[in-house]
Amino acid sequence: MSENIILTHQEIEHKIKRIxxxxxxxxxxxxxxxxxxxxxxxxxxxxxxxxxxxxxxxLTVSICEVKIDKQNPSSAIQTSLSENEYSNKxxxxxxxxxxxxxxxxYAVRHFLDVPLKKFKTAVLVDRNHKKYPVKADFKGISLSxxxxxxxxxxxxxxxKDYASLS
Length: 166
Description:
Blueprint: E1 4-7, H1 9-26, E2 32-38, H2 41-56, E3 60-67, E4 78-79, H3 83-86, E5 90-98, H4 102-112, E6 118-126, E7 138-142, E8 151-154, E9 162-165
Parallel strand pairs: 2-3, 2-5, 5-6, 6-7
Antiparallel strand pairs: 1-9, 3-4, 8-9
């Protein structure tokens, strides 16, 4: 099967900046927010959003890595921040691709055990193939694709990020 580029590096940079502005507008009343990225690509995407937020807003931005077993999402979830570090703050849960919603819904469930001021979700690509009632509050692109197609997001150190459909 051939690979079609659906987002170029420049388009991804634009989506990151737009999502950062949307997050800032949503959390403008807060002093501090946590950007929690699902390992591994979701965390890289979260770091990029956090970096953009720091340049456009006075918000104190903390970054948190969320480790979830994607084959067994109901198993224990680990976060790089303790619950006290994100308790009573605004939090944005970030992943690269929202496919069936399984990973995102289990990660959301983890954070629901902690009192948060505001809780939102962000993804780069929303595939619209949900098994669970989860939605992305902020998304780079919505994509109607077949279940047989695969979306791949690549974040390179050399600045040649892209998203493809195959």
